[in-house]
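Design job #97: recover the sequence.
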């Protein structure tokens, strides 16, 4: 094959040279070009074959010959051709790991720079495409074999032969990706499925093609994703299922419809197109009584569907994460709303009340959706005796700062700040907050709380960062490198007894299933999820297929991947898959945002795009209703919303904010009798303890104001730095 490739190349050169030569000389002046071409081709083939054997270590005196070859004047094209032979040799390796190492070595030795190594892959890709050997047939190129995270359209198809061994074929529009796919297929074809599933993707790094620019790293990530796509198909084959039989329910979003897979997904989808009568009734009462509505992303799908439809006719409706809710409420009041309804748990409504008061609008009314407490398991953990003890220890440590999660009560923040300098954080800025503290205050001790999972995930992220390149670390925070991160790790502590019951759903069994069946999908995870889910999402993030952050980060990431698919506009279309590693109420906002983009794209001629939202739901987290229309609903029959083993489908506290509760609140607004009844639904204001000094709410706002200063200026305020460096109880 190498000799043939060399002959063809020299013949092409000969034709070009003959053409130029014939224009300046008489036609009878001929040269024996074929003979010269054969001689050169024979020399090239001999050198290339010897080079391939030397790479594999099979030729006599291989080490000496390899050294001479690598330093000789042999062209890069000849070295690239050698990789074709090395790929074939990989098939004969003793085991799959040895085959992968050999394949990686053949690429790494193909040249001194990334361009040369990529050229080797391109030569292999073109050669395989021309021969048809191991090329994925057209009929096998579909959504299940498509490699996600690849900039070019690529596919890998895996099946088992009559011996139960792996047989793989691939295809790609990119020559380099096709070359890698050919190597990968050679490595795994003929191997036992279990051996292939155990193959680590580190051999891609050994090829040394993912160093340098972001584009090069992205390409290497795409190669790793091809292996993950192959593994996903193998797992399904081992389980005796097709690649289409997925264990988790999902919603498939198209431009003109939403399809549900499974009863759980159907229950979520049933509210995406809300009753028009309910929408009209809500809009009428909100307009008549000048009521603004702020709701959290985790709201019940039914009420979210109604709210998002109502927003088209009434602007003073917003669905967001907890931090933004208060800011949006202030804007609504400034735009003429006299009452704000808060659909969330109690600390959210208390925060809205406090921020509105701080903005000078104490006359605006704020109401919750229930007279009973709308609690939060995480916020309650920060009011425990164990958290008080944790803060006492922190307060007795010099040069310390307490980073407290926004999802806590104002009284908790006030009490914490009284013991230790405290700054609030969100799931989207917790990493930058901790890194800034370490950069701005030498030898600072950081105490994070109360979310145990977020604290553990933060520590895990910092540990991972110690293996990153300094360039990647500086992209996250310019003042840090591996040495500073290593120095920070021993000074980071987090509370060990606080969790959100919703994010506790993502236990080991759920994560194992995600890894087995959805390893090649985009993984999204809230920063509060357990460590197993966090690691899974971080692994996907390292391959360019994941995000870890806030609810808004998850929404933005999903929309960005859809925008990229629209930009690619592949003629055959594609389906993007997203595993939703957070509360299921988030799906309403995601579906609306994605479908809006798909509709706009279809209007511009970009069709056949789909986005699948997968719900990683534990079987213990749902209840059979016995009804034909909606046979399954979120939450176990106990009504707590969670199983003992983890597996919440939704937050039971958030579900107290129902459509009926919202309409009852609106009906009472404006009448003396109704507002007297609504007094029980007002958020706590936390007056001053002694009646003379600042209110507890105002003291609780101090850590929030520190965070706002950091968000605006990218540094801690002088007042906070002075407090951290000078205060010690």
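Job complete. Output follows.
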């Amino acid at each position: 094959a190498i000799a043939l490739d060399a002959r063809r190349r020299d013949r092409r050169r000969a034709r070009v040279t003959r053409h130029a030569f014939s224009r300046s000389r008489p036609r009878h002046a001929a040269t024996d070009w074929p003979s010269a071409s054969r001689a050169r081709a024979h020399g090239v083939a001999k050198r290339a074959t010897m080079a391939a054997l030397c790479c594999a270590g099979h030729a006599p005196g291989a080490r000496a010959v390899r050294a001479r070859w690598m330093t000789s004047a042999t062209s890069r094209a000849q070295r690239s051709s050698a990789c074709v032979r090395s790929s074939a040799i990989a098939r004969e390796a003793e085991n799959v790991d040895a085959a992968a190492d050999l394949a990686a070595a053949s690429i790494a030795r193909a040249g001194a720079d990334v361009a040369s190594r990529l050229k080797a892959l391109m030569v292999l890709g073109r050669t395989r495409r021309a021969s048809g050997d191991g090329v994925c047939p057209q009929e096998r190129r579909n959504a299940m074999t498509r490699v996600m995270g690849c900039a070019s359209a690529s596919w890998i198809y895996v099946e088992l032969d009559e011996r139960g061994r792996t047989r793989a074929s691939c295809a790609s529009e990119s020559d380099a990706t096709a070359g890698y796919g050919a190597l990968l297929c050679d490595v795994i074809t003929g191997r036992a499925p279990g051996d292939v599933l155990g193959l680590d993707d580190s051999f891609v790094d050994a090829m040394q093609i993912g160093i340098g620019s972001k584009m090069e790293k992205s390409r290497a990530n795409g190669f790793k994703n091809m292996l993950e796509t192959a593994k996903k198909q193998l797992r399904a084959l081992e389980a005796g299922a097709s690649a289409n039989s997925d264990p988790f329910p999902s919603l498939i979003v198209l431009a003109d419809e939403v399809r549900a897979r499974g009863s759980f997904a159907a229950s979520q989808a049933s509210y995406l197109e809300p009753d028009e009568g309910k929408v009209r009734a809500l809009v009428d009462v909100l307009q008549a009584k000048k009521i603004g509505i702020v709701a959290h992303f985790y709201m019940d799908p039914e009420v979210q569907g109604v709210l998002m439809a109502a927003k088209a006719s009434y602007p003073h409706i917003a669905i967001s994460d907890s931090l933004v809710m208060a800011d949006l409420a202030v804007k609504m009041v400034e735009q003429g709303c006299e009452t704000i309804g808060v659909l969330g748990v109690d600390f959210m409504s208390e925060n809205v009340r406090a921020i509105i008061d701080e903005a000078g609008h104490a006359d605006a009314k704020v109401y919750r959706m229930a007279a009973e407490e709308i609690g939060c398991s995480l916020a309650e953990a920060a009011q425990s005796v164990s958290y008080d003890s944790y803060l006492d220890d922190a307060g007795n440590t010099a040069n310390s700062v307490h980073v407290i999660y926004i999802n806590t009560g104002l009284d908790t923040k006030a009490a914490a700040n009284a013991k230790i300098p405290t700054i609030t954080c969100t799931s989207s800025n917790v990493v930058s907050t901790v890194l800034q503290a370490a950069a701005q205050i030498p030898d600072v001790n950081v105490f994070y709380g109360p979310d145990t999972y977020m604290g553990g995930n933060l520590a895990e992220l910092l540990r991972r960062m110690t293996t990153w390149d300094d360039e990647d670390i500086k992209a996250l925070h310019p003042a840090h490198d591996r040495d500073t991160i290593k120095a920070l790790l021993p000074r980071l502590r987090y509370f060990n007894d606080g969790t959100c019951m919703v994010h506790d759903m993502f236990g080991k069994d759920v994560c194992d299933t995600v890894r087995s069946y959805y390893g090649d999908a985009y993984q999204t995870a809230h920063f509060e999820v357990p460590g197993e889910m966090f690691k899974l999402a971080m692994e996907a993030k390292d391959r360019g297929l994941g995000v870890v952050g806030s609810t808004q980060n998850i929404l933005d990431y999903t929309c960005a991947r859809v925008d990229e698919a629209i930009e690619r506009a592949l003629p055959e279309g594609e389906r993007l898959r997203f595993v939703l590693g957070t509360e299921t109420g988030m799906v309403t906002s995601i579906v609306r945002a994605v479908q809006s983009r798909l509709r706009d794209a279809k209007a511009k001629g970009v069709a056949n795009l789909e986005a699948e939202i997968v719900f990683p739901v534990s079987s213990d987290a749902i209840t059979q209703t016995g009804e034909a229309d909606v046979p399954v609903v979120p939450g176990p029959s106990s009504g707590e919303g969670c199983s003992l083993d983890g597996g919440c489908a939704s937050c039971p506290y958030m579900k107290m904010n129902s459509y009926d509760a919202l309409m009852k609140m609106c009906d009472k607004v404006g009448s003396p009798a109704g507002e007297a009844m609504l007094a029980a639904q007002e958020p706590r204001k936390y007056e001053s303890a002694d009646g003379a000094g600042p209110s507890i709410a105002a003291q609780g706002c101090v850590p929030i104001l520190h965070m706002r200063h950091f968000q605006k200026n990218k540094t801690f305020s002088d007042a906070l730095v002075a407090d951290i460096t000078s205060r010690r109880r």
